[in-house]
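TA notes, week 10

Several of you asked for a full example with nothing omitted. So below is the full record: structure tokens for the whole chain, then the designed sequence directly under it. When grading your own attempts, check the secondary structure regions first.
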């Protein structure tokens, strides 16, 4: 198994903790910075030092940040002889945080051109629903007759008159 896959497992667990409100970032960043140091990295990679010594060294380096979760992570990585993955795990957690805090584009198709005020109001409503800042990419398609079709990622919200008429036709005709 590649180191990226292994690191990703730990990163997902830490990201879940962050999402739950446990702030492990300071201790994690401090541990990653310490393990990225050339001298510390050489010690962490060296089989000459026991894993307990490596673990104690890292714990002493991050003791100021004081995150029990990161201490447990360091102990777990030391038990499994994977302390060298700490910097990679931290990088993946930071990437996940950046993606979670970023914005998303929403393709909005309407029968008539939407005004800027309507686009702004729709963007605010979608931002509240999605939990990310939503940027509206407006399109016009007269064939939908009225209403809107919203596409955000792989989700589609179809509130068009055409789709409602098609659904009514299917229910009548069978």
């Amino acid at each position: 198994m590649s180191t990226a896959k292994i690191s990703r497992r730990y990163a997902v667990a830490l990201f879940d903790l962050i999402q739950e409100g446990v702030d492990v970032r300071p201790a994690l960043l401090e541990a990653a910075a310490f393990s990225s140091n050339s001298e510390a990295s050489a010690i962490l990679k060296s089989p000459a030092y026991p894993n307990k010594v490596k673990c104690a060294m890292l714990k002493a380096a991050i003791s100021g940040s004081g995150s029990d979760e990161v201490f447990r992570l360091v102990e777990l990585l030391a038990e499994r002889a994977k302390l060298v993955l700490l910097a990679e795990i931290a990088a993946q957690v930071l990437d996940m945080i950046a993606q979670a805090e970023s914005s998303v584009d929403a393709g909005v198709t309407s029968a008539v051109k939407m005004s800027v005020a309507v686009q702004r109001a729709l963007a605010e409503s979608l931002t509240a629903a999605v939990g990310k800042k939503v940027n509206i990419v407006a399109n016009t398609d007269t064939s939908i007759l009225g209403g809107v079709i919203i596409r955000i990622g792989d989700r589609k919200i179809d509130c068009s008159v055409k789709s409602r008429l098609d659904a009514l036709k299917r229910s009548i005709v069978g």
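The domain at 3-100 is CATH 1.10.520.20 (Peroxidase; domain 1). Use that as a sanity check on your answer.
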